[in-house]
Amino acid sequence: MNFRFLLLFLVTPVYFIAQENQKTPQDLDEIIISAQRIEIPFSKESRSIMIITSEDIKTSPATSLAKLLQEVAGLDIRQRGTDGMQADLYIRGGGFDQTLLLIDGIKMDDPQTGHHLLNAALPLDIIERIEIIKGPAARVYGQNAFTGAVNIITKKKSTDQVSIALNGGSYEQLGAAVTASSNFENSNQLVHFSKNVSEGYRSNTDYDTQNYFIKSQFNTQKTPIEVLATFTDRKFGANGFYATPAAIDQYEETQTSLVGVSTRFKKENLTITPQVYWRRNQDLYLYDRQNPSGYRNLHISNKIGAQVNGSYGSNIGITGFGVNFEKVFLSSNNLGSHSRTVTTLFLEQRFKILNDRVDLTPGVALSYYSDFKFHAFPGLDAGVDITKNLRAFANVGYTYRIPTYTDLYYSDPTTLGNDQLKPEEAIAEELGLKFQKSTFNFSFALFNRDSKNLIDFIKITEDEPFKATNIRSLNTKGLEASVDYGFSMLNFDQKINFGYTFIEDKIKELDLPYSRYAINSLKHQFIANFRSQLIKNFSQTILYKYAVRTAGDEYGVMDLSVDYQKEKFEISISANNIFNAEYTETNLVPMPKGNFMFGVSYKFD
Predict the structure, then answer these.
(1) Which residues contact 238 (CB under 8 A, 6 or more apart)?
(2) Cα–Cα distances in Å, from 448 out to 100, 375, 401, 505, 522?
(3) How far apart are CA 460 and CA 464, in angstroms?
(4) What 8-state DSSP symbol labels residue 120?
(5) Where are the beta strands (DSSP E) in 199-264?
(6) Alpha carbon separation from 430 to 29, 48, 353, 450 (Å, rounded)
(7) Cα dist from 141 to 150, 305, 379, 383, 426, whole Å
(8) Region for residue 577 given its phi and psi (left: phi exceeds 0; alpha: psi -120 to 50; beta: otherwise)
(9) Beta-ladder partners of 89
């Protein structure tokens, strides 16, 4: 489809039918960004933060977290296969090892490899909202937030009900889900189970996945205690997913679980939030599904952690502080057995001056790694309220990434890890503007990141294996712009969104004959999303994604969804890639052409 024609098609309804009595479905000003020690309303943040609201999730044509995140400019979700079965998360041109995923503030990074980050992706049915922090976030979250972080906020208290959902679609996709919530005088519970299977869109891309989720709150009348438990089991054919496209018989099974307990104490100006958690990941990989004994990897990682975050308000502003302790274990037939202890201290102070129109938040995080010693990452956020609705902001921060155990110890006939690797390092800056009104939101940001000690796999002669080495330096700069516009038409809420990202990478050239390091950022990324309702009970969404990668690949994909809802009954139809675009997102794995999903659900009180 012609790109300009599509842009005109999406903009025309706004131009002709927008009315003065506009309103938006949700007011983002009321949202307090989670997993931070200093609680700041969304409108007062001094960094690039995007919110995917519950309304956005409900109206999206996405059927998985991976597809939902693809609707945000600046995020690059590179999928292998369908339904996000295996996908990697990139932010602003960084690597999949340089981003951090959190669930209710619990860090889900895996010491084996960043490939497992999205293994913990939760079903959309239980997600309240998603907070996306772009740029250096190590000062707030610690290492691995090299280029940004994504925090999934799960649903909390809801009405007493049971919801049953069934779906089916292309490639013999079948799914079922049950979600139940109950509220008692001093507690409430949310329970979810879902199962999805498919024969795959091409040979050896079948999958079978199950999700279990429990969230309970106790002592809700006084000091609530929250208990979270998740378990995801995935089995899938991996045709060409990891090695070369010729490796058509690969197979993988992953199991990811999380248990967390947290509470919150508040007395006058002091707030304390303690949390303990345990994350486990198991990864079984077969190079040849038909010959399991030929080449087999089994990795099991465990992370046990505790953290205490707090804030204190005084005459000089708000002081944020915290401590995080983690013990990491890895057992692997390829990487060996290893353990690591990590302790991180956080401190930041938010000042307000000039009648509270200007705010400054300097901060620092200090980390000790039992195998990489001490590291510090300072940063500074600054914001100015130019008018009631217009805000300028800037931030700068130092960030780094500790090598994964795959970087350090992986070994096969063609690849060798390197236990002498140093952490990757970067200094990043951002300058931006935000305009927010009840019906119109606009944001613009310029960003720059200078990275060094980036890990590359290199070799000098053709016969020797690739070896992990700190050898790359990279400058990444770019810009982002986003527009949200809500209006009323025929007495129904409508919403349109545009997002654009430009990234330019400049890598230091090396005089090496063989290197695996490949820059393939989204050089140009444009996303247009039009959510509308024209008649009672029916709503529809049109989503268009256009991308030009650094390597030269160019593609555009359009998705549609239609939803019918009447009281407790709902029917939905989602169609993806309706114009059969041919494209790949990673490793030359062709993505599916046009496909659809049909779903039906009913809620029992």
Answers:
(1) 80, 81, 86, 204, 205, 250, 251, 252
(2) 19, 22, 17, 10, 15
(3) 7
(4) G
(5) 207-218, 225-237, 251-263
(6) 22, 8, 21, 12
(7) 11, 14, 12, 20, 16
(8) left
(9) 77
Rg of the chain on CA atoms, in Å? 24
Per the rule left: phi > 0, alpha: psi between -120 and 50, beta: everything else, 172 is: left
For residues 62 and 572, give the distance between their C-alpha atoms in angstroms, rounded to a whole number.
11
Give the Cβ contact number of residue 526 at 10 Å.
Answer: 21
Which residue in 133, 147, 124, 139 sits closest to 48, CA to CA? Answer: 133
Q: Which spans in 18-53 are helix H?
A: none
Contacts of 124 (CB under 8 A, 6+ apart): 57, 60, 62, 63, 64, 65, 68
* CA 68/CA 71 separation, integer angstroms: 6
Strands, E, within 58-206: which ranges? 75-80, 86-91, 99-103, 106-107, 127-134, 148-154, 161-169, 173-183, 187-198
Asked if the model's pLDDT at residue 8 lies above 50, the reply is no
Residue type at 553 in one-letter notation: D
d(CA 143, CA 99): 9
Give the span between the Cα atoms of 434 and 552, in whole angstroms. Answer: 32
Q: Which residues fall within 8 angstroms of residue 53, CB to CB, at 6 or more apart?
A: 25, 26, 28, 129
Which pLDDT score is estimated for 29? 56
- H-helix or E-strand containing 16? helix 3-17
Burial 190-217 (b: 16+ CB within 10 A, else e): bbbbbebebebbbebbbbebebebebbb
- Look-up of token digits 């772009």: 134
Give the span between the Cα atoms of 537 and 568, in whole angstroms.
12
**Predicted structure pTM score:** 0.92
Which of 427, 309, 311 has the alpha carbon at shortest distance from 379?
A: 427
Q: CATH top-level class for 3-604?
A: mainly beta
Asked whether 72 and 91 are in contact (CB, 8 A), the reply is no
Percent pLDDT > 90 in the chain is: 74
Written as one letter, the residue type at 358 is V
pLDDT digits 0-9 by tens, 556-588: 999 999 999 999 999 999 999 999 999 999 888
- In 10 A of CB 23, how many CB atoms? 12
Residues 80 and 237: their CA atoms lie apart, in Å, by: 10
- The enclosing H or E element of 373 equals strand 373-385
Strands (E), 402-439: 411-412, 415-416, 424-436
Q: Tell me how far apart the alpha carbons of residues 602 and 365 are, in angstroms, rounded to a whole number.
A: 47
If DSSP codes are grouped into helix, strand and coil, which group holds residue 246?
coil
What is the tens place of the pLDDT at every residue in 400-413? Answer: 899 999 999 998 88
27: pLDDT confidence band, cut at 50, 70 and 90?
A: low
